[in-house]
Amino acid sequence: MTQPITAADLVAEARAKIREIAPRDFHASRGTASLTDAVVIDVREPAEFETGHIPGSINIPRGVLEFQVDAHPAVANVSDPALSHKERPIVVVCRTGGRAALSAVNLQRLGFGDVRSIGGGVVAWGEAGLPLVVR
After folding, report:
1. 82 pLDDT exceeds 50?
2. CATH number of 12-127
């Protein structure tokens, strides 16, 4: 019989399969060619999102991400119809990084080719003194 694993084990496995980016590195790179049109997806619940989120991020909760990401205008709307929206850079964030890591793995499995996760999540973003939008 297989030993059960913990949520922390799942997150550790996910982190081994994805690219994490530090909050300051992502903030500094937003104007670069590789991340200019990156879509930032916050996978927290709507009430969490309202308490403070990265400027320009969209909220698609973790529980519905795989079902809604392909149809979301911020993800699928690209300037050149010949380009697949699945090649558009996506940066995933949550509160501390666990849900974002799990989400990033699944987005990769769904065929998204350029997925990153913000290490430490919105908590690390705020601790770095970076801007947050509070509604």
Report:
1. no
2. 3.40.250.10
Q: Is 61 a catalytic residue?
A: no
Helices (H) and strands (E) in the chain, counts: 7, 5
pLDDT grade for 31, boundaries at 50, 70 and 90: low
DSSP code of residue 100: H
pTM here?
A: 0.89
| DSSP assignments along 8-35, one per residue | HHHHHHHHTTSEEE-HHHHHHHTTSTTT
Q: Which of the following is catalytic: 93, 94, 104, 107?
A: 94
Is the Cβ–Cβ distance between 75 and 89 less than 8 Å? no
> Cβ distance 48 to 96 under 8 Å?
no
DSSP designation for 92: E
